[in-house]
Amino acid sequence: MIIQLETGISAERKEKVLSELESRKLKLVDVKTQLNHYLVALGKTDFDLRQIGHLKGIRDIHVVSDTYQLVSKKWKTSSSQIDLGDGIKIGDGNLALMAGPCSIEDEEKTDIIAKFLASQGVSIMRGGVFKPRSSPYSFRGTGIEGLKMFHRICRKYGIRIISEVMQVSQIAEMYDYIDVFQVGARNTQNFNLLDELGKVDKPVLIKRGISGTVDELLQSAEYVFSGGNEKLILCERGIRTYETSSRNTLDLNSVPILKEKSHLPVVVDPSHGIGIRDFVEPMALAAVAAGADGILFEIHQEPEKAASDGAQTLNFEEAMQLVKRTRSLFDLRSSW
Ligand code: PEP
Ligand code: MN
After folding, report:
1. Backbone phi and psi for residue 100, each to the nearest 5 degrees, phi listed first
2. Which residues form the pocket of ligand 1, taking CB atoms under 6 Å from any ligand atom?
3. 182-237 pLDDT per residue, tens
4. pLDDT per position as a tens digit, 36-74
5. Could you give the CA distance from residue 61 to residue 53 in angstroms, rounded to a whole number?
6. Any domain includes 73
7. 191 domain-assigned
8. Least distant ligand from the CA of 268
9. Which residue, 156, 195, 250, 321, has most beta carbons within 10 Å?
10. Whose CA is nearest to atom 9 of ligand 1?
11. Which residues contact residue 96 at a Cβ distance below 8 angstroms, ignoring those fewer than 6 apart?
12. How far is the centre of ligand 1, averaged over its atoms, from the C-alpha of 237 (Å)?
């Protein structure tokens, strides 16, 4: 059960609410986000809500029976939206396109990609500087200096930045040079990292774990939300199954399911999802048809020479077509 309190509720009123709830043997978790104040009450809620709903200082109250609460649509029925300023929005009626190289490389290459994105009206650039690689001998990113350069270039073109944070110490290091923190599939259940991202006032995109369920993704999002940060985006990026003909199995079932279970925006990463360049666009279109709020995909001016993930990376011509087609499908979907 979620009880939303008036922000700035007096100590006296709060005490009254707490004692009423505690007398019903509910376990209470006090959640203060950057926007709101909630009590998450766990336990049996088989009493008439009106018995507590009348108490002064309560703004709203709902029974949510899921393992996640604040990210549930049973709590908030309207879609949440992330506003990155200058009209750049994710969720609730917008198609957010986020594109860029798997890894940020040198300044010249980064500039060419950012300029290309700006020419296509794509206003969010993705690129990793701390790369989680299966082999320790693979390219592991340009680090914080690469992020500073990436930031300089994106600011020049008015583009927002999303990049992966791999550990708690990188949050502060990256903070000034980033617009959205990405939690990678290997870190979806790094609960210390999620707790710390709850304290940050910038949006967080959480990818689904490689072998994570939909509910586990929602519980990971709940960590960040209950830690204080409501600005969340969920990302389906494929899961590991017995199938070997593609890099991962892009589970597009999760899109309508997540949209039904949660009020958070849902984006899809078809690049890691299928891992095969020629099939990235059809899977992006399928994701839009399934109800995705955005697409996160990899591009590079010379995918064959990309420092990582070239085989699933689109060249500019392919990217132009994906941008055009996903937008027109989104417009069609919006008219349905
Ligand atoms: C990435 O987006 O570059 C990445 C490493 O993705 P994932 O965490 O989904 O593997
Ligand atoms: Mn990649």
Report:
1. 160, 180
2. 102, 128, 132, 184-186, 207, 237, 269, 272
3. 999 999 999 999 999 999 999 999 999 999 999 999 999 999 999 999 999 999 99
4. 999 999 999 888 888 898 999 999 999 998 999 999 999
5. 7
6. no
7. yes
8. 1
9. 250
10. 185
11. 89, 90, 124, 265, 267, 293, 294, 295
12. 8
Question: Residue 238 CA: which ligand is closest?
Answer: 1
Q: What residues make up the domain containing 8?
A: 2-62
d(Cα 139, Cα 35) in Å, to the nearest integer? 39
- Asked if the structure places residue 30 within a domain, the reply is yes
Measured in whole angstroms, how far is the alpha carbon of residue 98 from the centre of its chain?
A: 12
68 lies in a domain?
A: no
Instruction: Determine the atom of ligand 1 nearest the C-alpha atom of 269.
Output: 9
Q: Whose CA is nearest to atom 8 of ligand 1?
A: 184
Among residues 10, 33, 62, the one where a domain terminates is 62
Domain identity same for 57 and 87: no
251 and 166 part of one domain = yes
The domain spanning residue 32 has which CATH number? 3.30.70
Is 189 in the same domain as 248? Answer: yes
- This prediction has a pTM of 0.97
Same domain, 104 and 217: yes
